[in-house]
Amino acid sequence: MSRPRKPTSLKLVTGTDRADRRNGNEPEPQLLEDLTPPAHLAARSAVVWNELAPMLRRIQLLTEADVIAFEMLCDAVADYRLARETRGDDMVTYSHKGSQMLDQWLVAQQACGKRAETLMGRFGMDPVSRSRVMVTPQGDLFDQPSTGTGRFFNK
User: How many Å apart are CA 147 and CA 1, to the nearest integer?
Assistant: First the structure.
């Protein structure tokens, strides 16, 4: 598996930015203003949305462009919780022939957990990925530009 791409802001800070490889028209999506869950989201997923959206918005990681990925994260966490609750304490079950096998809700819980873990990493929701996420603090209204590469440098 190849190494994931570094964000432009990280390249600028570490000094590895190259003009010939820079995307001059890199989009800068707006932070998501309306934190109400979409109407089509399942009730279980909407509960997760209401738990996580305010925190991600507060740390400036939830933008308009992230809504679908965030919906998938909410679904994965909701499915994980459902599988865990349904499984209870059962780890092993018996097949129709009487042999032991992993409980299917445990398998579902593990799959949902893996899906959620991957998406949570993209939103900086674990210690390792959080150390890789860079958020531009809001600067003075008149001293720092709010867009473009100039926002990463002091004058």
Answer: 33
